[in-house]
Amino acid sequence: MASPAKTAAPQAPASKKAAAPAAKKAPAASRNGAGNTGNGAGSNPTVDIQPVLNQQNHAPAPTQRFGTVSQRLPIGLNENTRQVSVTDLNQLLADSITLRDMYKKHHWQVVGPTFYQLHLLYDKHYEEQTELVDAIAERIQILGGVAVAMAHDVAELTSIPRVPRDREEAPVQVSRLLDAHQRLLKNCHDYAEKAADAGDDGTNDLIVSQLIRTNELQVWFVSEHVVDSPLIQAR
C-alpha cells in the first residue's frame, strides 16, 4: 500500500504550476477593460479620449457657419422661412442678453432711498430675462440656425445703446431700462407678425407668449418707480 502514496505525492506541485499562468493573465484582461480608465493616452483608446492641443490656432472647419441654417430637424418649414426667423431671433437674442446684463449691472450699482426695492426687482427681472435668453437660443437651434453667444458678438449685433461703466442714479437706470424694453418690444411686434405670415407658428408663439408678455410686465413694474413729484426732504 506504500507505493500508491508515493505516486500521489508528486501531483501537488503540478497543480500549483497550472494555476500560475492563469494568475498572470488577469492583468492583461484588466488592461483591455474599463478598469484602466484614466491611465493616460493609449491605455484604452475607446475610453481615454485626449484633447488635441493648439486647436485655437489650427482649428478645423466649423460644423456650421453662423448665419446659415440646416435642415437637420424635419419641422415642416422651408429653408427661407427658417433663415428669416433665425435672423430675427438672433436680433432678439442679442437684445435680450444686453437687457439681461443691464439688469445685473443696475442690481449691483443701484443707490438711493429705493435701493432695497430696486435691488430685488432688478435681480428678479434678470432671472426672467435669463429664461427668455435660453428659450430664444433653443428656438434658433431648433430652426437649424446658430445662436449668437459671445459678449463681443452680442455687442456688435444688439440694437440697445451701450451703457456706460459708471454708477448712475436710480432714475437714470430706470430710464435706460425702459428705453431698452421699448426697442426690444418694437422688434418683437414686427418679428411676430413676420413669423405668423410665413407660417412659423412656433416662433410667433415664442415671441408673443413669452417675450412680449414678460417684457411688458417688466415695463409695468419698472415704470411705476417713475414719479412726477420729487422726494421731500424732512426738516
Verbal overview:
There is one protein chain. The protein is mainly α and 235 residues long. Helices cover 62% and strands 0% of the residues. The chain is built from seven helices and no strands. It has helices at residues 2-8, 11-31, 79-109, 115-142, 151-157, 170-198, 201-223.
Shape: globular
What series of H and E elements makes up the topology?
Answer: HHHHHHH
The Cα radius of gyration reads: 32 Å
Task: Tell me the structural class.
Answer: mainly alpha
Share in helix: 55-70%
Q: Unreliable stretches, pLDDT < 50, 5 or more residues?
A: 1-9, 14-20, 26-38
Task: Quote the distance from N terminus to C terminus.
Answer: 125 Å
Write a brief caption for the model.
The chain has seven helices and no strands. By secondary structure, the chain is mostly helical.
What's the helix and strand layout?
Elements: H1 2-8, H2 11-31, H3 79-109, H4 115-142, H5 151-157, H6 170-198, H7 201-223
